[in-house]
Amino acid sequence: MDKRNAIEVEGLTKRFGDFTAVDAISFQVAKGEIFGFLGANGAGKTTAMKMLIGLSRPTEGMGKVAGFDIDKEAEQVKRNIGYMSQKFSLYDDLTPKENVRFYGGVYGLSKNRIKEKTREILKELHLEEVANKPVVALPLGWKQRLAFAISMVHDPDIVFLDEPTGGVDPYVRRQFWETIYQVAEQGRTIFVTTHYMDEAEYCDRVSIMVTGKIEALDTPEKLKEEYNANTMDEVFLKLVRY
């Protein structure tokens, strides 16, 4: 594995019976890169991500994440990445403070480190005043940023975000992307799936999946130039028509 890459994938495939959900995809993600994994719902994005984070075994092909084999070293992969699911993975009946403590324990942090991270996250997100209120009472944008912070409670170098802005309004989406930029500036690699094509503009590079295959992969500017398009939505529509 090239030491400059955080993720390397070659011919990665996932079949369910006769159905091929992910069809021999190959790509690399550089360390510190914001990599967008785009495609319509059902294109295979989440299935591919589950293989990358060690939750699903590939049918064929290989992949390495943080230097670990996603098939043979899935547990090491899980310990060395952050992951935020579509549902945000928070416990609504617990408070922000309790959620941080719970996940800190899941990731094996010491009691002192959990206390430090709890104070740090609550202060950074300006949640001190609602630290002891149930998460269910928080606005959606706060829940989203809290889930993102908790996914990094163990200080991973790579963070996987699965449709993190689904179901939130455009203002909250922009706020969340500002948070992603702040995290990327710390040197972390961000791998984000989305079906919002305008969010591709926020990424260093993007791949676009269509029915299980990566049909395009480059910077947003180069893709727009290649497909003679003004927006990433236009690029996507042209790919689907092909």
Automatic annotation (TrEMBL):
Cell compartments where the protein resides: Membrane
* Tree of life domain: Bacteria
- What region holds the ABC transporter domain? 7-236
Predominant subcellular localization, coarse grouping: membrane
* A GO MF term: ATP hydrolysis activity
Q: How does it sit in the membrane?
A: Multi-pass membrane protein
As recorded in UniProt, coiled-coil segments are none
InterPro entries attached to this UniProt entry: AAA+_ATPase, ABC_transporter-like_ATP-bd, P-loop_NTPase
Report the SUPFAM superfamilies cross-referenced here: P-loop containing nucleoside triphosphate hydrolases (SSF52540)
Protein keywords: ATP-binding, Membrane, Nucleotide-binding, Transmembrane, Transmembrane helix, Transport
Q: May I have one GO cellular component term?
A: membrane
Spell out the Pfam families in the cross-references.
ABC_tran
- The molecule here is called ABC transporter ATP-binding protein
**Source organism of the structure:** Ulvibacterium marinum
